[in-house]
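Format is sequence with structure; example below:
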Amino acid sequence: MLNPLGNPIGIVSDINENRLLPHIVNISFTLHQAGKYKIHIRVDGNEISNSPFQKEFLAGPADPQQSTIGIASSIIVVTRDVVHSLQLDCRDKFGNYCKAMENRFDLKLTKIGNPSALTNTELALSEQKLETKVIGEEGAYKAQLLYDSVILKNGDFTLVVLSNVDGAKLHKEIGRKKMNVTFEAKLASKENSYLDFSKKPKKVHCSISARQIKVREYYLKVFSNNVCSFRVLPSTKTLVIDDGIQAPLSVVCKEKYLFLATYATFLNRKFVGGDTFAMKMSYFQQELAALNIKRSQSKYAVSISRQHALRDSMKQLKNASASDWCRPFQIKFQGEQAEDLGGVLREWFHVLSRALFAPSNQLFVGFRDDNQALVRPNNARPPEFAKIKYFEFAGKIVGKCLLESAITRDSNCYIRACFARSFLAQILGLRVHYKHFENDDPEFFTNKIQYILSNDIADLSLVFAEEIYSSDGKLEKIIELKPNGKNCVVNNDNKIEYLDLLAQQRLCKEIQEEKNAFLKGLNDLIPDSLLSIFDENELELLICGTCEYDINDLKLNHAVIGRTSEFEKILSWFWSTIANFTQQEMARLLQFVTGCSQLPPEGFSELSPKFQIVNAMVTGTLPTAHTCFNELCLPIYDSLDDMQHSLLIAINEGSEGFGMS
């Protein structure tokens, strides 16, 4: 049998002769993919008359747990009494496109701060769009979209209902394609000790862009998918902005719902390029190239020695302006004859990658001392790298690499580095999370984080403070994770807060100066609004690209745990599946299992711990992974198709970055 793509599949599960009609044979099989199929029937290897037969198999009824609405974030903005269209993506239980029935949808709204408020909705189905009208008060609502009384896959969201006046204002401001919109507000928080609240609340201006809020000169980096950082309090008068690094800031804004709606609209706008990594990368490169379409074509000459590439490059680019960095570079390695037609530039990026990001050079380091550690800026770097300018230069090199890839798209340039997930998260403005330790510092995650999560810690005598020791084991200082933290005991009720603050300290605050310098260099060339369409794993692929992955190398250098006769079939299907993977899909698999898309120089043989395939001892669920141990846990599946589908979902969706909790 051939599937709709024309690929052969062997799925016949039962063949029985019809006892009443001897010349008829009943053939039964199971299909999950809708479409037109060619069915070949052979006897002794020969096609029977009229074979192959064509048969179309239709999709099943819509399944709410597989169906979604087309929203880029968890906030939807509508205007009261005005019809708003929601794009539907209806699927059956096997993921096939299908049509929904109009009278089976329901939209439930609960006003935040006033659950008793009465609100009516009108729903109408038009092709694959759900026309929605909200009749009721303006405000922020908790919304649930249901089909057959079951919430859609992404049917939990926040609905901001604007008045007609505010709706017109929003349309006018956003219609101008402005990069930011400014609101007047007043500071209301007393948590920021450096602010003087002895007088009346201070008037400020809040400028909103795609991923940044600027309050005076106070920047809050906000992860775009986490709208709860803009939560409306029960009073519905105060907005709390929390980036997870600085103290939360509360502002009072008369146009609070327009404020929130503007942020949500910026959020939705930046995903116009598409949802897959390939579509995002194409959009990113198109937009970046368009921003630099008028760049000077005169080349900026850089002549360096290979032995002192970093020193020479920094010296020659010391006085280069941002516009100079956007010019084409003419790279020459002293004493070498190669003409730079693109290859020398890529070699320059490769040499500088090694000088800047190799852990052995101590400018960027991991939490553990080996060549596979994921690196981040080193706040305890050696004296020769003491100046913060090295990190700004590193950011510029990454930005230049991305810029050249966008402008000369037929020849992408990449940085060879294995960046820590928490560092990639901070480049994007994401809040770091204690779960980042699993990738960045596996030993610490296993010995401390996991132990605290899994056990009663009442007798551990932990406090909200971090003790810092010297290399010879002497206590140097104590850093409080919150005010009076050394006197605040960690217990089972507040241990998640403790782990979160520990992550902020270890992963973020320790390297804040170095990170800010890196971002300054990067954002001089690459707008952060363009970078923010990616998650951490996608950002790594954008910056670092993929390796050459040899499946035979993996077959020779892996371990199997829980081998049984039933699991042997799953292993066979696994090898068949990844044999057809693209290099990008292999990179996603490696990210999912090890936390990084890059392999050591010697390939899978040098991976430590060894790549392990584990019998998960469950049936039909998604694969899971333990990056601490490089473990891929595979469940038992009924068919090859089921396993392929589940594995692709796991590596593409299960490996997404951490948001704020």
In short: Residues 190-198, 217-236, 655-661 have pLDDT under 50 and may be disordered. The first strand starts at residue 12 and ends at 17.
